[in-house]
Design a protein that fits this description.
about 5% helix; 4-stranded antiparallel sheet; 2 helices; mainly beta; single chain
Length: about 425
């Protein structure tokens, strides 16, 4: 059985696959930044000069989700986190739930002028229609989206697992941004990077009740990345997690839940590895700037994790997207690299430290960075070795575009860290 078939069976086993028009998870329906939707580029035209609508959803770097015509957001207003459900076509508020939470985690240290509010993107369970959120201060909650967001269960990870401040592991000043990693539904579990040095780095909860089911044998402190990735290694289902100390591949198969299949050391100045691990076939990409200053390709087998190549083409925030033999990643400039060698194919544009990108079904790249620079760029198949920017909108906002861009049901959703969110139609109904 080839690797692609194994990967497909693995995804089906997760029982959490959404229709192509929906965007129910961190990085989209298949959690990899790839979309089955068209970009909307037609005869030199794309989105309008003005958005369809614009709203304010609270401070935070959490990305929105879109499921079944509903938009879900998480933001902070007046030291209160707000979970909002809106009509995705109009932005109209349908329901809202709140709980007390400060702008920063209780152990916060450094860079408070650059962020605030929740950074973790919510997770939607297709099977139960429940929404899971994680605050910067460790509030893990389950909401029933079919009952106007009624809270089903909740707990605080700091309180329950006595998680301390992230330690200073390099000569760089200490940093702690609270909880940032999106929870993940896998079958009947909710996987959460708790980062408890007593209980475990990764903990599985019963998604229906919140009861702890198992913890990983790895007990590293939590990382700061955007999300967990799924991977099949020699027919073994695994979760790929970036802790503060390691890239860890953790088994999910029955009888071996939480066992470590392999690790790769990865310590970044300021505990600042934000880009998520990106999985493709039997390999994982990890990247960060600072002392690492690299994009690294790792091959994973039942024997562990081995480095394939390392290139000085890092990303601070944007998680790489892999498509047809190429890697697309946005930091300072938009870059395209060769999957096999890591060598740069082309780079261009100006996007600053913020960055995210989506590869569409018509082989275009939607790129988002700076304080709201939204661009449409050609993939390698249509670029002849050069950066080809088809069109762009500048300065949608005034603060950093930390949240990743979203494409769902013919619409693009862009948010900045101040909580401004805009919607553009790209495919007319």
């Amino acid at each position: 059985m080839n690797r692609m078939r194994i990967a497909l069976l693995f995804l089906l086993a997760c029982s959490n696959i959404a229709p192509s028009a929906d965007w129910p998870h961190w990085r989209g329906p298949t959690r990899d930044g790839l979309s089955t939707e068209q970009s909307g580029w037609q005869n030199g035209t794309w989105i309008g000069e003005k958005p369809d609508w614009q709203i304010e959803v609270g401070v935070g770097s959490s990305s929105p989700l879109v499921v079944g015509g509903r938009l879900y957001t998480l933001g902070n207003q007046n030291n209160t986190d707000a979970v909002e459900c809106r009509d995705s076509a109009t932005g109209k508020l349908l329901w809202k739930q709140t709980y007390k939470c400060g702008l920063y985690g209780r152990h916060h240290a450094g860079d408070e002028g650059l962020y605030g509010g929740p950074s973790s993107t919510p997770e939607f369970d297709i099977e139960t229609k429940r929404l899971y959120t994680l605050s910067v201060d460790g509030h893990l909650n389950c909401w029933d989206t079919q009952a106007e967001g009624k809270r089903v269960w909740g707990k605080n990870l700091y309180d329950e697992y006595q998680v301390g401040k992230r330690p200073k592991l390099t000569r760089a000043p200490q940093r702690d941004y609270g909880y940032t990693t999106s929870p993940m539904v896998y079958k009947d579990w909710l996987l959460v990077e708790v980062g408890s040095t007593k209980s475990g780095s990764l903990i599985a909860f019963d998604k229906a009740t919140g009861k702890q089911l198992w913890t990983s044998e790895l007990k590293d402190e939590p990382g700061h990345c955007g999300g967990i990735a799924l991977m099949t290694v020699n027919a073994i289902p695994c979760a790929v997690v970036l802790t503060q100390r390691n890239l860890a591949v953790i088994r999910l198969d029955a009888g071996h839940e939480g066992k470590t299949l392999g690790t790769f050391p990865w310590v970044t100045d300021f505990a600042n590895t934000i880009a998520s691990p990106a999985v493709h076939d039997d390999c994982v990409l990890i990247t960060s700037a600072y002392n690492q200053n690299a994009l690294v390709k790792l091959r994973v087998s039942k024997d562990g994790v081995k480095e394939v190549w390392r290139q000085k083409s890092p990303s601070k925030v944007c998680t790489p997207v892999v498509y047809k033999g190429h890697i697309y990643v946005c930091w300072q400039r938009m870059q395209c690299l060769d999957w096999e060698t890591g060598k740069t194919v082309w780079k261009g544009g100006a996007y600053g430290d913020p960055g995210s990108c989506i590869v569409t079904a018509d082989e275009k790249v939607i790129v988002y960075g700076l304080s709201g620079r939204l661009a449409l760029v050609e993939t390698a198949a249509h670029a002849d070795g050069k950066y080809v920017e088809l069109t762009a909108r500048e300065n949608l906002f005034r603060t950093q575009a930390w949240p990743h861009v979203v494409l769902s049901d013919g619409r693009i959703y862009c948010r900045d860290r101040a909580g401004n969110l805009v919607c553009f139609t790209v495919v007319k109904k």
